[in-house]
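Supplementary notes (optional reading)

For those who missed the lab, this is the record we used. Protein: Glycoprotein nmb. Length: 561 residues.
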Amino acid sequence: MSGVRHHLGLLLLAQAVLGAAATRFQDVLSHGSTSPVTSYKKLQGWSSDQNKWNEKLYPFWEEGDPRWKDCWKGGRVTANLDSDSPALVGSNVTFVVTLQFPKCQTEDNDGNIVYRRNCTRDPPASMDQQVYVYNWTEWTDNCGWENCTSNHSHNVFPDGRPFPHHPGWRRRNFVYVFHTSGQYYQTTGRSSTKFSVNTANITLGKHGMAVSIYRRGHSGFVPIARAKAIYSVTDKIPVFVSMFQKHDRNISDSIFIKDSPITFDVKIHDPSYYLNNSAISYKWNFGDGSGLFVASGSSTSHTYTLQGNFTMNLTVQAIIPVPCKPVTPTAPPPTSAVMTEPSSDSDSSPTVESVEDNPDGGCHIYRNGYYGSSIAVVEGILEVNIIQMTSIQMTESQAENSLVDFVVTCQGSLPTDVCTVVSDPTCQVSKSMVCDPIVVTDECLLTIRRAFEEPGTYCINITLGDDTSQALASALISVNGGASSGTTEGVFIFLGLLAVFATIGAFVLYKRYKQYKPIERSAEQTEKQEGFTAYFSTFKAIFFPKSTERNPLLKTKPGIV
């Protein structure tokens, strides 16, 4: 009999232990995981997940439990948990939880969930939509914070601690319980809540943050959603560098142009402004043998004078002021380590700073961040110039549009396409755009012919481009229509400066001397011209519906785009 009683006592003891274990925060918030707790440092404002969980007031449901289907009218509520990590150790990492309600449900200003039944995205004005409001807190309407004796349990968290009392407590119908690093944090809120935690006592690396959300009920709280997120803590300053170049066609391909400055802009990820009072320096090595550059500003520029592949490296160093530690009577040996962050228990700090990193013995620590990128440098198109404009004289039977030839040169690599944008005189409102592929095999010299339907002043932007670069030239041109006079006055802008290249009288004199002639060349240039080809692409009807070249004279002029 004594043996039976002994076994029965062990069984009851085991059941008691299992029952007690099932009510711990660790098991509830870890979804049933019973892995042993690893050592961790105390987070300010957080509690150990070995505390007991009031499962009667806050029931725990496994995933797949049929009660999830009935915990919310109209569908299932989901939760999105986001963070602004990675976080530099010692800074704050912020988490934001947002509840997503089923269709047609929103939270009003009083914290009620308004449910419009049979709603549509754009309901007719005559349609009367029935509105339902969740009446979870009806019991609070007739009582205050202190005298709700029959429902006093509604004002406590799962560990029995009372809710914080503030003027808006009636609108906070949700309870959020967060769990990480063997600890939990609990708060009340509305359909969205945000909180921050300091990372000084969080070990380096990736961690999981879990949250369980409950809503108020008449006799307790009802679970409605769970969410998880991964965040990381690092002792390296999170750094990103954006690169920009004036003539670069694609800023994301890391291909840049020789002999043109590249702007490097450093972005430090520090959403909690932990480094605001720090002294930050930037050490650049552009990988082209130009040496090491140290700057105090986050932006710099560099010009590569050679083609090839290079590796750019950046080191960001921050000197962070921290509370001074008491001076010990014995001096540490030269190779000893000095702890740089205070610890609330016996665990060693995850980061140390050597004596050599603190030469002046000041009350600060050093943090470094690193960034590297491969850069390809190519020839590219560096500059475009409009060197001549010629108005094409036509007979009355041929004249429907005013035609103008623009002679364009460029420096650098040979272009593969040309685009012309015609705008108003302010260069702000675009009227038409034409882009043509071209083939240039010798030198960058080509003639671009464009039509103007009406007289007036126009802003012309001519862009030459290849696979990696593009450059632009602009001009203001005044077009005077009429086939009999054939006069066109051009006023050009080169590099932002206005210059008058021809007057109406000069054009008339020029046309009396010869009707049309390409740019004068030397004998050697004339021989090279045979190797120069440029293909004409027909204007699209959408831009120039009347711009059809029917003049047989124009068809005999090769090399015109």
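If you only remember one thing from this example: Helices lie at 2-22, 25-29, 504-513, 523-529.
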